[in-house]
Amino acid sequence: MINQSINIKKKKQKTISTEEVWLPEPVATETTDNNMIQKDILSYSLLFLLEQLNPKERAVFILKEAFDYKHEEIADVLSYSVANSRKLLSRARSKVRSGDQNPDNILAARTNSKLIEKYLKSIRNRDVETLQTLLADDVALYADGRDTINVVQQMCNGKTDVSELLIFAYQKFQQSQTDKTAVVNHQTALLFYEDRQLRACQVYHFDESRQHITRICNILDPEKLKNMDLSLTSRHVLNRLVVLITTHNH
Fold first, then answer.
1. What is the dihedral of CA 114, 116, 117, 118, to 10 degrees?
2. What is the DSSP string of 184-221?
3. What are the RNA polymerase sigma factor 70 region 4 type domain coordinates in residue numbering (predicted)?
4. Range of 43's domain?
5. Which of 88, 120, 130, 202 has a CA-to-CA distance to 178 between 20 and 30 Å?
6. Percent of the chain having pLDDT more than 90?
7. Are residues 194 and 112 in the same domain?
């Protein structure tokens, strides 16, 4: 639904800005203070919570918050009324801010390390065949470098194109970097460091079987990565949570 909406707007505008690929700032959720209220962590975990919205809410939320569509545009491409678009956005924002944590999702995130190890090994060895067995047929890769980092491609679909792009990007940019698995936004992730500085954070989404990667969110924007500290305290996260909510309220 979302991709269809973007395609419609592409036809109207002929071109689409690379700035329209937007990913939330990553948060390390495996080492945050245990005393921190879970709903506060989840309110910060937009990637995780978006999966809990129904398709209509998710479509309106992403088109508005990520792609900065006006309600009139959303109503046009989704065949909704402007009033309905506003109502769906309000409902989606409410869920994002007050969603409850699902322990099964966190547990699953911690058990995906073997698949990620196999995934990374296949990329290192340029083993396209093995890599493609780990990717869903319609896997999507999103890259957010904002204005400061030039990325090879902002969005890529299909396991053939995605696997080729992953291997190319690794051999060209990440081969000399140090990688580390982590749990980010309550999902399995890989962190890439160079000279002890975080250069990239890749967050993975899996199908229900937990055997295939369905989406890869590659955060490269230095502004979003600079606060990615695995030794975060609850106060630091809460302060950033207030900033995020305040920003979205405006």
1. 90
2. ETTEEEEEEEETTEEEEEEEEEE-TTSSSEEEEEEE--
3. 46-95
4. 2-101
5. 130
6. 36
7. yes
Q: Which of 29, 25, 52, 30 is nearest to 40 (CA)?
A: 29
Say how many CA atoms lie within 13 Å of 88 toward its Cβ: 23
The span from the CA of 62 to the CA of 89, in Å, is 9
Calpha distance 85→64 (Å, rounded): 10
For residues 172 and 133, the answer to whether their CB atoms sit within 8 Å is no
Is 243 within a domain?
Answer: no
Confidence tier at 94 by pLDDT (50, 70, 90): confident
Residue where a domain terminates, one of 101, 130, 159? 101
Note the pLDDT of residue 28: 73
- Tokens 């979302």, located at residue: 2
Indicate the number of domains in the chain: 2
Tell me the helices (H) and strands (E) count for the chain, helix number first.
Answer: 12, 6
Q: Which amino acid is at 149?
A: I
Dihedral of alpha carbons 24, 27, 29, 33, sign: negative
Has residue 94 been placed in a domain? yes
Predicted TM-score (pTM) of the model is 0.61
| Nearest CA among 124, 125, 137, 110 for reference residue 204 | 110
The 10s digit of each residue's pLDDT in 183-234 is: 877 778 899 999 889 999 998 888 888 899 998 989 998 888 887 754 343 4
**CATH code of the domain containing 130:** 3.10.450.50
Look at residue 109 in the predicted model and tell me its pLDDT: 60
The two tokens of residue 3 are 């991709």
**How many residues in the chain?**
250
